[in-house]
Amino acid sequence: MELTRRDALLALSAMGIAAGGVAQQLGDRGTVSAEVTDGTVAVAEVVFPSSVSGNREFVETYLDGRTEGDGYSLEEIASLLDTIDREAKRSTGRSFTDLTPSKRDDVLREIGAAKAYPDPDGTVPQRIRYYLVNDLLYALYSSPTGGELVGNENPVGHPGGREAYQEGPDDE
Amino acid sequence: MSDAANVVDRTPSERVDVCIVGAGPAGALMADKLAAGGHDVVVLEAGKRFDFESRLRRMKRSIRPAYDDLDVWDMGGPRDDFNSSGEIFYPLNHKRVKGIGGSTLHWGGRVARLPEKDFEMQSRYGLASDWPINYDDLQPYYARAERELGVAGVDDNPFAPPREQPFPMEAFPRSYSDSLFEQACEKLDITTHSVPQARNSEPYQDRSACVGYGTCQPVCPSGAKYSADVHVRKAESEGARVIDQAAVQRLEHDDSGETVTAAVYRTPDGETHRQTARQFVLAAGGIEIPRLLLLSESPSHPDGLANSSGTVGKFFMESPYIHLIGQLDRRTRQNLIGLGTMESHQFYTPEEAEPGSFKIEFGLGAGPTPAQLALEQRTPLEGMLDTMRNPTSVGQWSENARNLGGIEWGDDLLANIREQYGNYFSISAEIEVLPRVENRVTLDRSTTDAYGKPIPDVSWNRDPHAERTIERAFEVLESIVDNLDADVREKHRSVLWNGVGHHSGTTRMGTDPGNSVVDPQLRTHDLTNLYLVSSSVFVTSGAMQPTLTIAALALRAADHLASKL
């Protein structure tokens, strides 16, 4: 199942971010640093299912929208990614982005992101859960591609029209 | 937009014909009609004017677990303090919105005319009291209300009262899920039909058609669902003045005690103002209207304004709901749209007094959404807290075992969502209650709100009539589920006693000033220029959503008031 920029734009819409400006900027990136994009993609490769591809394009568009949208702090993301990277180097001697997804999974769990309550104003693990883990999961499962993975092609928050609810499941 | 609050002129207007308190559907419709008739109208609204563009952000708040339900429309805090003293806790602020548009900002959008029997409960069943008006009196106003709000529907309900014309828009088609239940109902000779919706199935009066965000409750980002800010904008284009964040504190009257002279209100800058007018309309709902009357006590009205009958605040009614929720052995296609498309009113007009009326709704939002399943995973600590609250739940203990390693993500999470999403169903019934004197709104003088005024106290208690109706309704719902062409993996009952925000009855209508607050024209018996336009005037509430009746009463009251000006 391939994620697309359109999926990211629709996910942004579901997050309350008017993505019209983002769509116009798609050919004119530059606000989000390569480090932030690389780091976020590396997290996405852990928290997204392995059957999903196109993560980089999805994440780029998504991060652009976050910058453009509601004043969501990229500095916050960058800071959290730095923390994750430091933990990766401490425990493995390598950068987070250079690790295999399995090792990255270990690092995120070691840092406490899987046991912290998601809180945008909380501790570092709580903010990693909120801003990185949950935001990416939300973006995925509120996009049509993410929804289709589980049999819901018009996820709540996505303006996907009025046909899906009338249609039966695919296997009928 | 906090700066905007300081630059808006909130000082009173001069030479005003009508001052309306509250910018929900009743106040907005009256303001529009009276302003269109050339009258000078001022509307005072305690809540904010919300930017339409903010709705996407508000929708996010409604979906993300980090936000509380109250955050969606900025409810709660000292402005909205309340107490609940009955046997059932009444979470008042979850049941209303203060702001331009009022509670229609978060309502579900289902609309129905009250059938004839709801106006004749005493004559037919020897229960409660009859309304002093009947369905025939309201029928033309129901038709107008459907055009004003924009209602999508089709005349396929054999249990509905007579109609005079088609609905303004085509009905929303039935869902796949409905088809499963339709078959079961047919076996039981239960007739199902469509659901009239104040929601655009096509573009209507400059508003979008529904595009399927699926978040009707509590926020429609497209504006396809009617909300009363629509008529506030119309009223303003007709010349009405609408002041937000103008919290009315009390009404003042003249020396005779028979005429209201001013509404005293507070603004965010801390100032107190007096808005004078020839006529006053309270359109602030079933809680704040009685509260404002009680707060306006004076030497000539020691028990509160318009309260010579002693009934202001009494006979509070809500709409309990029951749900039968479960999982089938197959996909039910839930959470793909935010509305419901099938109901049955077959049990609405019973032969005997009890069990009373109930209305069956077939749900389309059963069970968690994929995003909820992904985001609302419980941490080990939270899981242990859940276990302490519910130590006998085997499911909770196994959930804890799974949580020990932390939340899932990646392929494990996907597998988990696939397992948990997709097979849920829900059938619900709205339950009739009767007006009872112990269910009431009073002032809690021990606590004050942001303006130093006593907060409202809601006393809400179980109703034996409703309890007997609930038993019968569950029997019917269970029989429907038992007749499904599917295996039922699990099912459980739940009763939502505290209702769904249909507060009514607290300033009831009648012809006898000794036991009612307003006359059939909605003018108070005690004051010659004070009207109450709200579900607070309902004598009984039936088991239907009240908003279309509120709108019909507002249009009727506007006609009457225009004839007096």
UniProtKB/TrEMBL annotation, chain A:
Top-level taxon of origin? Archaea
Which segments carry the region annotation Disordered?
147-172
Stored Pfam families: Gluconate_2-dh3 (PF13618)
Q: Which InterPro entries match?
A: Gluconate_2DH_su3
Name the chain's protein: Gluconate 2-dehydrogenase subunit 3 family protein
TrEMBL record, chain B:
| Cofactor section | FAD
A Pfam family found in this protein is GMC_oxred_C
One Gene Ontology molecular-function label? FAD binding
TM region(s), chain numbering: none
**Keywords of this protein's UniProt record, alphabetized?**
FAD, Flavoprotein, Oxidoreductase
Ranges for domain 4Fe-4S ferredoxin-type come to 201-230
Q: Which domain of life is it from?
A: Archaea
Q: Which family does it belong to?
A: Belongs to the GMC oxidoreductase family.
Name this protein carries in UniProt = GMC family oxidoreductase
Organism lineage reads as:
Archaea, Methanobacteriati, Methanobacteriota, Stenosarchaea group, Halobacteria
